[in-house]
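Our platform keeps sequence and structure together, in a single record for each protein. Such a record has a labelled line for the sequence and another for the backbone structure tokens. This encoding replaces a full spatial description with a residue-level series of whole-number codes. Below, we set out a record of this kind in full and without editing:
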Amino acid sequence: MSLELPTQSVLLYKGKWTIRIDDLLISTTLRFKCDHPWPGTDIPNTLVNAACAAVEKELGVKFTQLEISYRYLFLEQRYLIFEQVVAWAGTTWVPSVKIVVATDCLWKDIFKVHPFATTYYHRDELEFFRLGVIFGWDAGKVEATHDIIVISDSVDDVQQPNMVNEPLTDCDGEVNLSVRREKSTSS
């Protein structure tokens, strides 16, 4: 049995806000971020001004700087909440079919913590990847370290060559190049 919840468009787009305006805001932000990178997730005022101008020029809809700033906060919340929903134990995000799969009991538990998560009951976050570039992926991808285990059926001891780090003196190439050479026994 399915929960009776409004569709995503009803929850995300009210008043003057439309999917086209959000798309234009996100596209403008990504272009701006490529040309003028900024640290963190705080949206610079120059971007807010550029977004106001872009929306008015391309779509003929006028927003104040405060309205655009609040919409950026809303977009960031969309990204963060969706990220938390898909990280919830027992949920599965299937991007190919654009849904988050979970039991209704699990959805009810999620809604208690994040009422806005009802937005993702019927479908996934449309703009997750683009919002991730803006709000969440500055730190880069972190991967777990992997231990390497060497298994051999040989009983022979492996001899380590006598190695020493020596500064690179005969090259005008990379100055940070680390070179390991065998210690000369004739010296």
Observations:
- Strands lie at 92-94, 99-101, 163-165, 180-182.
- Helices lie at 8-12, 19-35, 45-59, 65-87, 104-113, 128-135.
- Confidence is low (pLDDT under 50) at residues 138-145, 167-187.
